[in-house]
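Write out structure tokens for histidine kinase.
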Amino acid sequence: MRPDSSSPPRPLVWLLEDSSLEARATQAALAPSCEVQHFADGASLVEALSFHAPPDVMVLDRETPGLTGLEVCRFVRAAPLTAQLPVLLLTSHQRPEDVVEGLDAGANDYAFKPFRPSELVARVHGLARWSWQQKKSAREAAAALERTRQTLSLAQSTLEEVRNAEARAWRSDQRFRLAARATRDAIWEWEPETDSLDWSGSAHAVLGTPQSGRIPREAWWRERVHPEDLSAVRRGFREAIEGTGETWQSAHRFLGIAGTWLDVEERAFIVRDSRGHAVQVVGALQDVTARRQQEAEARKRSDFERQLIGIVSHDLRNPLAAVHLTARLLLRREGLTDVQEKQVHRIILSTERAVRMVRDLLDFTQVRQGGLSLNPRDMDFHTVVEAAVEEAQVAFPGRAITVSRSGDGLGRWDADRLAQVVGNLLGNALNYGAPDEPIQVRSHGQDSGVVLEVHNTGVPIPDTFLPRLFEPLERGVPHPEGRVDRNIGLGLFIVRQVVRAHGGTVTARSTLQTGTTFTVLLPRHRPGSPPATPPG
């Protein structure tokens, strides 16, 4: 809430703090006199700046996972709209060089942990008052400058208008003529008194429109507009002229100079007098035949894709299921040699991989056709994560996977889709991570939602790949030749789509020293849906 004349000022404070315990302590100190919005990570705070008005004060924890408070501060200072936003850094580091680094990043003030609540409140209110005063001074200066500008403008406008009226009219006419010659559209002007059209533009070679001179509108339309479209064109134009709108547009067939019917679009702007009567109408006629043909071909290709995916989903999954079932039954037979058993296992793994590829293709097509469908229900996120890990462990019995959980995991999500997210991230880590090092999976519940982290060591993802890592058909590290577990590059793309459909975010960071970590942040319920209720 911003300060006004009828209520005491309550600054709006955005708090960046990854520790839920320290966040609650800070909110408890500020809440009696401030409106506090908490962010558990810097990426969410920066993203919120794109959709919401900035706060009066930012209180940033200096060190947070991912985007740190220092980095958020530098980002705020680099953006013109937030360059003057007051920033207070919270930190447990009290070395002079740490303070200097924070101030160099653009912080207005510094508070050391543990802080005294009264001191923190005083610092925040001081920054808020300074911010309000700066804004007030800026408004007053802008208002004074505007008054001065208006006074000078009023004194000069009459003389300038007299001197330049003729020049402006000439330039406007010249601009119009040059633009009409440069465009491929046919430009026309309708004169209400004579009901005639004055044509210009460079499209006469294709459309057969007159290069100059006025022609009767009604006779022209009868000659060139397709008979089946003529009545609709007439009616639409008459309703636009007699109405109150400022535009008229139509799509119809038009007889071109070659004697063939073309698909055209017309759009006109209507100028009205004080009584609402149309006094000038200027429009453009554009040949869109080629574009319509391209659109029809694109629709055909899209229909073919849907048919192809339908064939894949129906005709390919069934035989794959039969192969998988048969291989499972073979394993139960007695008397298989070690070589035969190994070959059957390979059949099973290859079949499961093919099934995953089919599923990814289906999801990819579904996204392109309008988005993933979700079936949310109340559930425990930790349980879904552990089940997905168990499934991956069965597929990779020789690999070590460690699992840890903390906090409240209750929320409302699509369990199958989240299992797909965990499975794809685990599969990525198992395929690309160092084979002799464990994969670490951590699920954590916090105030704003739940967090999933999947970490592996090994060859890092190149920095050049990170920005497009979640795009379709992209891989961060090339597969060695001959690998049988290669995929089609849709796993991470589908991860991002599922997470976005739940209103969350997914990020990746990768270095040689720390390894590769994928982090998923999910709200406990999708925006616009009811909150989750505890099971039972």
